[in-house]
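Repro:
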Amino acid sequence: MELPEISSSEIIELIQDKLPALFFVFSRGRTEILANDLARDWDFLNKKEKKAADEQIKEAEADYPGTFSGPGWRNLRRLLYQGIAYHHAGLLPPVKYLVEKLYSRHLLWVIFCTETFAAGVNFPASSAVFDSTRKWDGYDFRVLHNREFFQMAGRAGRRGFDKVGHAFIRVDSRFPEQTGFFSEEKVEPVLGRLVVSPNTVLSLLRYKNDHEIHRFLNDNFKMHQLKKQKACREETIKTCREEIAKIKTGVCPESRTLACPIERTRARRQMKRLRLKRKNKERELLKKQLASFTPKKCRDTEKCRTLTENFMQAKDRLRALKKELREILKLENSVFVEFKEIRGLLEKLGYVKNREFYPRGIFALELHVQEILVTELAFSGLLEDAEPSEVAGVLAGVEYIPGKSFHEIKQDLPALREASALRKNLLRMGVPEKYCLWSHLPGPLAYAWYNGAGFAELMEMSSLQPGDIFSIFRREIDLLRQIERAATGNPALVEKVKAIRGKLDRDEIALSF
């Protein structure tokens, strides 16, 4: 029988002497739902505290007019006066900053937040509450890793206020195993990760000699870890081989033949199974094989059986260790393989030849996101020939991966069609998709913003949350700066890109913290 879910209000009632609390939720929408549920039953602020909160809220509204508006803000504002809030990436930076400021001034008692609140924001609480310990990782739902759990649970316990911190987990009756039984002793190690991008290859070819390139690819944290794993596996393989050799000296030389009583017993059982399955040919063959061996008399079959089993287990373990070593060697070599493949691709596309840089290569050298796609957009003439508003639309889609909730905005922009055709052509030429990440979906938003639309209008046009729209434009503005540096030999393009950046970097989008 499925038990009814305990509400956030009931949880807070149980731990009310252990507040303030950070209530971790793995869904933006659910942070808001749970905050509203709690507000129906709880109001943590007295009159003096409400007045202090009111001053901070009105000050923020005055500093950023237009940012604090709309039904979403009105709902959050009501919660703030009750000492309750939610915090996630879908909020605009000034709104998140206000929540953080009120919390630091002890004017919030419960914040429903996503895991990003635990990363880089030093706001301890008396308690950390987990709505669940199962999260969607982009492919499937899984239990939190130990490292993830302790990163969030570690926010519990305020220096100078609490002797201990408390962590609470809501256990779903459908997934009672979801607590994960987290252990600090089993916290996953930090893994090295060297990303070899087209910019990495171009930079190395431009500024390093062959010896320095090899050293860069070979002497890094990722390779250090792989070499350590390699040495460990090699030592374990050596020990395993010694163990096999030792066992082998005690194993009867006929232990794996049909002269062995143990093997003969197994063979007779197999013959019986074959007879029941009416596999007469196989049965007759096995019978002849049995007849060809003279049975060996064995005084201690149990000892022989144990040694044989140990021998086979050791052989299986050796095979598994060799497979692991092959995988490590493959990963160790993959960095050099990837460098070689990207270099070959850049030569094929006309960016470089050996150490000689062509115009495309010099341009791409200044880019740090989707270098090949953006370079091809520039050299196709699209960035120069298209209307500035449409260029803004095209660049908004660079490296944008839309979520399921993004509803397409119908608007016919020729530049978006050209960009889409260019991307498809690159894919046909063999450019990997990871170097052609682009979507037409944000284009109409950037087009409208460039032409003077207000942020509220963008919200009406789109299903995105304010923070998502903000992120699209901040990323595009950074890309425009990169293109300005890359296009220094083309003053007209530099001026055009700079003008587009100026049009986009305004009002709510210009706000940053």
